């Protein structure tokens, strides 16, 4: 753990925040990143770490007051970071995202999409904000219209790039950030989680080999639309593809690259043997879809081969190993029905 130190020289006071937040045109202009390294200190004692948006965050010393998206905070805790985390935002009581982090032990800056209490954030006097980035240049669960004020309170923002990145590489980035923040990431618990991840990955390979030709569709559903996901855009689905899973690839992906939007009249466009259905509360689940004739007609639905899929999760070995284990079991239990 990082010892408590006088942070007066490394944080903005609440008064200064409100003075700066009122200024026009504030931005966090970061220098170009010349390549990642886990050694975050130089000989002068300064700290730096690559930002996924293309720059490098540099501070006078190791950040000691971190506010993070719940999944980011949970991943850092999985790799040994705890004391520096003082605040979280983004569905703050989602246990799967927080892991071993107790939400009551930190300040909740926001608890839903679009919520981010800037005054509460400033009061925490953070010297680092960490979140994911699923869309280039945008921060997950950080409202776009308040970004300049948030960066005025603390220009040190690290966005871990998710879109187009390999799952193992994203996990490695969080592990490297934890090490840069002073955590010991070579503990027996971390090693055990890494071994479980490797075993679960092999279990998926073995399950796929036992079910050749099984075609899988990753999908989300709302009252208006059925979304066929493009596995090439998602870190988890693209990794599943590396392990041998045969996914449906939509013909025409919507702007943003994550899925193709289909009307319910055309939701049967991509027949599959197995459907992985987005399990977030923002989407419709199987019980709510039961009265839709097109849904009931899908081969996978008729065969009872619909399984939950968690597209948003925390990026650590400890968190993703269970997802892989669940996928392996799902594939082993499925059969071709098209």
Please provide a written account of the structure:
With 338 residues, the chain is an alpha/beta fold. Helices cover 32% and strands 18% of the residues. It is built from twelve helices and 13 strands. The protein has helices at residues 14-21, 70-78, 95-98, 118-123, 147-153, 167-180, 188-210, 235-242, 286-289, 293-297, 299-302, 317-333; strands at 47-50, 56-59, 66-69, 85-89, 107-110, 128-133, 157-161, 215-221, 225-229, 246-247, 259-263, 274-278, 306-309. Strands 8, 9, 10, 11, 12 and 13 form a six-stranded mixed sheet that branches. The chain has a five-stranded parallel sheet with strand order 5-4-3-6-7. Helix 1 runs antiparallel to helix 5 (147-153), helix 2 (70-78) packs across helix 6 (167-180) and helix 7 runs parallel beside helix 12 (317-333). It is globular, with a radius of gyration of 21 Å. 43% of the residues are buried. The model is unreliable at 1-39 (pLDDT under 50).
Tally of strands: 13
Q: Strand percentage, roughly?
A: 15-25%
Calculate the terminal CA-CA distance, rounded to whole Å: 54 Å
The ordered string of helix (H) and strand (E) elements is HEEEHEHEHEHEHHEEHEEEHHHEH
**Which spans of ≥5 residues are poorly predicted at pLDDT below 50?**
1-39
* Helix share bin: 25-40%
What is the overall pLDDT average?
88
What Rg is obtained from the alpha carbons, in whole angstroms? 21 Å
Backbone structural class: alpha/beta
Shape: globular
For the report, how would you describe the main beta sheet? 6 strands, mixed
Count of helical regions: 12
């Amino acid at each position: 753990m990082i010892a408590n130190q006088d942070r007066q020289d490394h944080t903005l006071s609440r008064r200064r925040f409100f003075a700066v937040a009122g200024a026009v045109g504030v931005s966090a202009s970061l220098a170009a990143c010349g390549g990642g390294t886990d050694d975050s200190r130089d000989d002068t004692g300064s700290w730096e770490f690559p930002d996924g948006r293309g720059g490098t965050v540099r501070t006078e010393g190791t950040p000691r007051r971190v506010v993070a998206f719940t999944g980011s905070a949970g991943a850092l805790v999985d790799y040994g970071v705890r004391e520096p985390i003082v605040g979280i935002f983004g569905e703050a009581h989602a246990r799967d995202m927080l892991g071993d982090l107790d939400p009551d032990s930190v300040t909740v800056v926001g608890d839903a999409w679009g919520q981010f209490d800037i005054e509460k954030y400033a009061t925490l006097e953070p010297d680092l904000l960490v979140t994911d980035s699923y869309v280039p240049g945008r921060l997950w669960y950080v409202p776009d219209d308040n970004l300049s004020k948030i960066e005025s309170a603390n220009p040190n923002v690290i966005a871990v790039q998710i879109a187009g990145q390999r799952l193992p590489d994203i996990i490695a980035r969080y592990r490297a950030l934890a090490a840069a923040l002073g955590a010991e990431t070579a503990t027996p618990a971390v090693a055990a989680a890494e071994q479980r991840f490797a075993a679960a990955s092999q279990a998926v390979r073995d399950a796929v080999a036992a079910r050749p030709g099984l075609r899988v569709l990753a999908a989300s559903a709302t009252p208006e639309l059925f979304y066929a996901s493009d596995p090439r855009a998602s870190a988890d689905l693209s990794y599943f593809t590396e392990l041998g899973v045969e996914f449906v690839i939509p013909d025409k992906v919507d702007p943003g690259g994550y899925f193709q939007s289909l009307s319910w009249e055309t939701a049967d466009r991509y027949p599959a043997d197995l459907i992985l259905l987005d399990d977030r509360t923002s989407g419709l689940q199987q019980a709510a879809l039961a009265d839709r004739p097109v849904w009931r007609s899908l081969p996978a639905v008729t065969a009872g081969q619909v399984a939950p899929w968690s597209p948003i999760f925390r990026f650590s070995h400890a968190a993703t190993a269970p997802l892989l284990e669940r996928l392996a079991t799902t594939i082993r239990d499925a059969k071709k029905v098209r």
